[in-house]
């Protein structure tokens, strides 16, 4: 009991988060401490806590250096693993600012949709943590973007197609950008032959 006569409740780490952290090369004790200190909020919060607090505190301990090397290797692998690609409809001849706004719509639209549905949640979490790799590519026209969109749907790869509201530069309903998310191979199966914008 504490001073308020409430019984102590032993902290229980989220088992799924704990396993994820350990699989990344983080020691079980550091993983548990990170989950405790972040209130079991998320894997990302725990990883941030580990790298910000625990590894720096013990950086002269050889076992920590080894764990750091494992984590760094994990970082390199994960950083290459997932990406989001954006295919811009170049036939619309949008200005630079318009393209930037439409790519932002495509990114946020797909991100929100995936967060709401829980689709590929672990992959999205890794992508969030490891730098959110993004690439912007040239699409030929509306038909081209729709063809890529349908191909992604057939392969069950998360995708999002932006139709403009028509307030500036282009007519309402114009298909401006396609966003596609997944691991490198999945995304490249859809957009791998396209040129950079």
From TrEMBL:
InterPro entries in the cross-refs: Pep_tRNA_hydro_II_dom_sf, PTH2, UBA, UBA-like_sf
Catalytic activity as recorded in UniProt: an N-acyl-L-alpha-aminoacyl-tRNA + H2O = an N-acyl-L-amino acid + a tRNA + H(+)
Signal peptide: none
Assigned EC number: 3.1.1.29
Top-level taxon of the source organism: Eukaryota
GO cellular component: cytosol
Keyword set, alphabetical order: Hydrolase
Coiled-coil residues: none
Boundaries of every UBA domain copy: 12-53
Single annotated GO MF: peptidyl-tRNA hydrolase activity
UniProt protein name: peptidyl-tRNA hydrolase
Origin species: Zophobas morio
Upper classification of the organism: Eukaryota, Metazoa, Ecdysozoa, Arthropoda, Hexapoda
């Amino acid at each position: 009991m504490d001073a308020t006569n409430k019984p102590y409740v032993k902290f229980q780490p989220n088992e799924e988060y704990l396993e994820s952290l350990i699989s990344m090369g983080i020691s079980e004790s550091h993983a548990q401490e990170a989950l405790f200190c972040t209130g079991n909020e998320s894997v990302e919060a725990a990883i941030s806590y580990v790298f910000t607090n625990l590894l720096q505190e013990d950086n002269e301990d050889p076992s920590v250096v080894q764990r750091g090397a494992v984590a760094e290797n994990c970082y390199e692998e994960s950083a290459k693993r997932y990406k989001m690609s954006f295919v811009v409809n170049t036939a619309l001849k949008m200005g630079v600012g318009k393209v930037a706004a439409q790519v932002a719509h495509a990114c946020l639209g797909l991100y929100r949709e995936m967060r709401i549905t829980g689709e590929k949640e672990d992959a999205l979490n890794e992508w969030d943590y490891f730098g959110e790799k993004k690439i912007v590519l040239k699409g030929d026209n509306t038909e081209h973007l729709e063809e890529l969109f349908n191909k992604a749907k057939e392969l069950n790869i998360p995708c999002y197609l932006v139709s403009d509201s028509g307030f500036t530069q282009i007519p309402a309903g114009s298909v401006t950008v396609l966003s596609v998310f997944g691991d490198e191979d999945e995304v490249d199966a859809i957009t791998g032959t396209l040129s950079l914008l």
